[in-house]
Amino acid sequence: MTRGDGRLTTELDPEQPGPRDACGVMGVWAPGEEVSKLTYFGLYALQHRGQEAAGIAVSDGSRTVVYKDLGLVAQVFDESTLAPLQGHLAIGHARYSTTGASTWENSQPTIRSTSTGTAIALAHNGNLVNTADLLKEVDRLGIDMGGTTSDTHLITALLAAHPDESVAAAAERVLPQLRGAFCLVFMDDNALYAARDPQGVHPLVLGRLASGWAVASETAALDTIGATFVREVEPGEMLAIDEYGLRSVRFAAPEPKNCLFEYVYLARPDTKLAGRGVYATRVEVGRTLAREAPVDADLVIGVPESGISAAIGYAEESGIPYGQGFTKNSYVGRTFIQPSQSLRQLGIRLKLNPLVDQIKGKRLVVVDDTIVRGNTQKALVRMLREAGAVEVHIRISAPPVKWPCFYGIDFATRAELIAGSLDVDGIRSQIGADSLGYVSLDGLVRATEQPASRLCSACFTGEYPIELPAADLIGKHLLEPSAPRTVDSASTSVREGTTA
């Protein structure tokens, strides 16, 4: 997908992006270490979670410095930008926007000073659902938001609004006011903090370094920087880390509802969620899919990257050989060259190309993670037929996505979700496949080895575990100047205005 600066993102289809998570967050407290570089490499491991902007905040105990910009982690940072970021404490962020436009002003970490001069920097993964209420509180306190339009900036502003309290005390006051999904890493000049919403919708983990501590969105980021996994940050828990050690505060009772879509698509296969490897879960989903949606075929292939693990499981269970059906250009997401209109029309061929000798004359089972709008799968089916496949059977390692997510995954509106209006055969016809099969919700849940009661499956069922506000009080652009500005709590009426 082309950006305004001519670079490409990592999307397969430049016109129809797939599901995207809100962000990846990283925090390091390690005196004597190059914390900015540890944070950089942690963010690099979390790049799949956010590709619009990246940033790092560092403190040396006397001042906090933030460097951030639009782009991928490796496009924002290099040796020259990391070198000045010296200190013992850092947080980092890789962003995909779910509240607030993709602008430099909305990139993270956010930073704000209290009236006493204490600097607070914060990074957020997730999405709040009571943003309108928080906006009212910010307005009541007379806080100038400086043109920012993200829920993350509201959190930071509220933390900084209590200059007579420590950051930890302010957080204990503010965190219970937040509703929705949030994994936060934040800091003042001396301490690192981490907090996770009471439902624990998205993952946040704690790791031990030789000379300190690290927190990250996924265990894979801990592995990358040589940190030993200690445990998950519990739902409703805040951690504080400084020279006196690690302390835990419970700000809300836990009500676990882990995002089921993390297992399907969002998390890296080398990450562990609730103690189970994501790769093992996805392979088991593939085995279940082979039992639930069998087909006679010659070859099983996976769509890179998140379809490969399930494809391996499908092949193992079905006895159909597994093979590589596509070659992927791993570097197109790093190019600075603007593709021409004719190249843009080639769509996913910028990223994938079929291996003709492998698939010509064969009946294929093609395993993918999801179908959102159907455009990508339609292009894949057409590409495989042009390469000589005699049959193309699509198998999906998740149930049909019928409902939008309000907790940090930027699904389309329900009207744009192909499964919101078509049944399975209608979708099959739309994408041009010979057959189409989805794994069942029960089968997916069993593969996670988690009780269904601890999982959020709202995008598949429409049952939202965290109560949502009225439709006009939620959405990615709620805080934008053209959106409703303030809300009358006594009614559902909305007054028009502009962002302060």
SS-based class: alpha+beta
Q: Count of helices? A: 16
The radius of gyration computed from the alpha-carbon positions, rounded to a whole number of angstroms, is 23 Å
Weakly predicted, low-confidence segments: 1-17, 483-500
Estimated helix fraction: 25-40%
**What distance lies between the first and last C-alpha atoms, to the nearest angstrom?**
32 Å
Spatially, the strands of the biggest sheet line up as 3-2-4-1-10-9-11
- Largest sheet features: 7 strands, antiparallel
| Average pLDDT metric | 86
Q: In words, what does this structure look like?
A:
This protein has 500 residues and is α+β, with helices and mostly antiparallel strands. It contains 16 helices and 25 strands. The strands form seven sheets. A seven-stranded antiparallel β-sheet has the order 3-2-4-1-10-9-11. The protein has a six-stranded antiparallel β-sheet with strand order 5-6-7-8-12-13, covered by helices on one side. The chain has a four-stranded parallel β-sheet with strand order 17-20-21-22, sandwiched between helices. A hairpin with a 5-residue loop joins strand 5 (110-113) and strand 6 (119-128). It starts with 22 loop residues before the first strand and ends in a 5-residue tail after the last strand. Mean pLDDT is 86; it is low at 1-17 and 483-500.
Sum up the structure in keywords:
500 residues, alpha+beta, 6-stranded antiparallel sheet, 16 helices, globular
Topology:
Layout: E1 23-29, H1 35-45, E2 53-59, E3 64-70, H2 73-76, H3 79-82, E4 89-95, E5 110-113, E6 119-128, H4 131-140, H5 151-159, H6 167-174, E7 180-187, E8 192-196, E9 205-209, E10 212-216, H7 219-224, E11 228-232, E12 237-242, E13 245-250, E14 258-259, H8 260-266, E15 272-273, E16 276-277, H9 278-292, E17 299-302, H10 308-318, E18 326-328, H11 341-344, E19 352-354, H12 356-359, E20 363-368, H13 375-386, E21 391-396, H14 424-431, E22 435-438, H15 441-448, E23 455-456, H16 458-461, E24 486-487, E25 494-495
Parallel strand pairs: 14-23, 17-20, 20-21, 21-22
Antiparallel strand pairs: 1-4, 1-10, 2-3, 2-4, 5-6, 6-7, 7-8, 8-12, 9-10, 9-11, 12-13, 15-16, 18-19, 24-25
Helix pairs in contact: 4-5, 9-10, 9-15
